[in-house]
Amino acid sequence: MQALLRNGGARALANAGRGAFAPAGTSASSLIAPTAGTLGSPRWIGDTGVPENYGQWKDGGPGTGFLGTPKNHRELLEKRPMSPDVLDIDGERVHYKFPAVALSSITNRVTGCVLSGGVAFGGVLSFVGGPETLPAFVEGFKSWLPFMVYPTKLAFGFPFVYHTLGGFRHLYWDKTTEGIDNQSAKASSIALFAASGGISAMIAGWTF
């Protein structure tokens, strides 16, 4: 209890000492009351204290204009690109170049989504119509749109081949930690695109 009284007395003396340097017309209660600073420690900016609209353009207040903040900074903030930003503010130009390694990584994710969507479509179709629905759908598609058979098989074959070969490449990277430097990754990415395209074209050319 005595320690608490001593601490309270020291705080009161400190606040009273600050009163000698406070702006004219400041009441003692405003010095003791907590403000924006530490408890019991008033904070002053010039002779006016901390304005309520400090740092904001509100009710005609100056805000941070003295720091060079433009009046339309809210509008500029809405145009600020999200992180990681790919497109410029106009939404048309691209910030960065996409090397072969980046395109390979993006393609790996896209092909994975395509494969998941294809499996989900076949599963839902078989669940609703029975196990014979999917083969009947394929045969009907081949008879209705024969000119679309090769492009469709190529569109489904490329994701399967690319994602499979890409998976083997990642297994090799994880097992050996080799081939992950920029030059090797670029070479393997180009080879992956070429091999996947060639194998997919051959698979699509088969009649089945």
From TrEMBL:
Q: Does the record carry Heme as a key word?
A: yes
Major subcellular site: membrane
Where is the protein situated, by its record's location annotation?
A: Membrane
Q: Which GO terms describe its biological process?
A: mitochondrial electron transport, succinate to ubiquinone; tricarboxylic acid cycle
Q: What name goes with this protein? A: Predicted protein
Keywords (alphabetical) are:
Heme, Iron, Membrane, Metal-binding, Transmembrane, Transmembrane helix
What single Pfam family name could you report for this chain, choosing any that match?
Sdh_cyt
Q: What's in the GO CC field?
A: membrane; mitochondrion
Q: Which InterPro entries match?
A: SQR/QFR_C/D, Succ_DH_cytb556, SuccDH_FuR_B_TM-su
What top-level branch of life does the organism fall under?
Answer: Eukaryota
GO MF annotations for this entry?
A: electron transfer activity; metal ion binding
